[in-house]
Design goal:
lyase, binds nicotinamide-adenine-dinucleotide, Epimerase_deHydtase, UXS-like, binds uridine-5'-diphosphate, NAD, about 325 residues, NAD(P)-bd_dom_sf
């Protein structure tokens, strides 16, 4: 087992952050989870609270943070379109000021630092599938821009700190990831469809449902995160992490209906502005440098996720709890 470290995870009570905290604790590290609970939930980390190596701090990354750590994972940011568009200026601040503060902390503590970047860097991509070398097609003034441009600026900051100050950075461009502990209220397609199907409500497909996404199960992603953080410092960054199996949103709806045995019908709603038409990661870099490929295919991952939401809904625990 590697030497135990004191590790900071921002956004640690969110969907991905909670799995990351768990994985790091399982390896014997001390984990400091920092979160403002904007979209995360205490429920996601309740099972970790009794671990003496786990500590939670309510803090907003738009404010500087003074702690002593050996390693930093910067995940703090709302991730679903309805959440990041609710207060777009705050979204920009979280991504830009949050990056500056965490990079400053990494500089002072001489910590390696990981950035949770996103496939939204590619916007509505004109190159398919998307390799890391593609610069993207992003609207600077649309409703998604607060998130896309906030994350793009964070990438710029990370690379400037690396070039000018020699920081040891790691950066994943994460493609749509799903699994247990997604919020039932955050409007992302997988949680929306499953909750709608389980309740027998209409499945809301935005547009014709011909737009595509590539869905990665959370366990695969976290395995990729851990490999990426431990990659040699000369490994090329950023790295796409996602499952290259591509589905239309209509195919996803049909699969959720089949797996839940739901009587739900399809209800078409307007397509949101700037909704990307297609998205699929080129993961050759992660495969070559990390030996990483996702193992869990959509049918299996959806079954685990459906079981989670069935349990949540049957206990009436689907209301937002901070
Ligand atoms: P999430 O909303 O479940 O988690 C985000 C966490 O960050 C929440 O706990 C939230 O309360 C916290 N947070 C937000 N603003 C904060 C602030 N100012 N200060 C402190 N904490 C703050 O989302 P997630 O899916 O777990 O995403 C985690 C990270 O991964 C995000 O940075 C997101 O942009 C990135 N990402 C996720 C996906 C995905 O498919 N899940 C895809 C691409 C990128
Ligand atoms: N979507 C949909 N119905 C929903 C929620 C989302 O058809 O109830 C579509 C959305 O328009 C997009 C895709 O599903 O084309 C993925 O949406 P999500 O918000 O999960 O992620 P993102 O757009 O950021 O990839």
């Amino acid at each position: 087992m590697p030497a135990s470290k004191r590790i900071l995870v921002t956004g640690g009570s969110g969907f991905l952050g909670s799995f990351l905290c768990e994985s790091l604790l399982n390896d014997g590290h001390d984990v400091l989870c920092v979160d403002n609970f904007q979209t995360g939930s205490r429920r996601n980390i309740l099972h970790l609270q009794d671990n003496p190596r786990f500590e939670v701090m309510r803090h907003d990354v738009t404010v500087p943070l003074y702690v002593e750590v050996d390693e930093i994972w910067n995940l703090a940011s709302p991730a679903s379109p309805i959440h990041y568009q609710t207060d777009p200026v705050k979204t920009v601040k979280t991504n830009v000021l949050g990056a500056i503060h965490m990079l400053g902390l990494a500089r002072r503590t001489k910590s390696r630092i990981f950035q949770a970047s996103t496939s939204e860097i590619y916007g509505d991509p004109l190159v398919h599938p998307q390799p890391e070398s593609y610069w993207g097609n992003v609207n600077t003034i649309g409703p998604r821009s607060c998130y896309d441009e906030g994350k793009r600026c964070a990438e710029t900051l990370f690379f400037d700190y690396k070039r000018h100050l020699g920081l040891d950075i790691r950066m994943a461009r994460i493609f749509n990831t799903y699994g247990p502990r997604m919020s039932s209220h955050d409007g992302r397609v997988v949680s929306n469809f499953i909750v709608q199907a389980l309740r027998g409500e209409p499945i809301t497909i935005y547009g014709a449902g011909t737009q595509t996404r590539s869905f990665c199960y959370v366990d695969d992603l976290i395995a990729g995160f851990r490999l990426l953080m431990n990659a040699p410092s000369d490994a090329p960054m950023p790295m796409n992490l996602g499952n290259p199996a591509e589905f239309t949103i209509r195919e996803l709806a049909d699969l959720v209906i089949e797996l839940t045995g739901s009587p739900s019908r399809i209800d078409h709603r307007p397509l949101p502005t700037d909704d990307p038409v297609q998205r699929k990661p080129d993961i050759s870099r992660a495969t070559q440098y990390l030996g990483w490929t996702p193992r869990i295919q959509l049918r299996e991952g959806l079954s685990h996720t459906i079981a989670y939401f069935e349990n949540l809904l049957s206990r009436g625990r689907d209301r937002q709890v901070a």
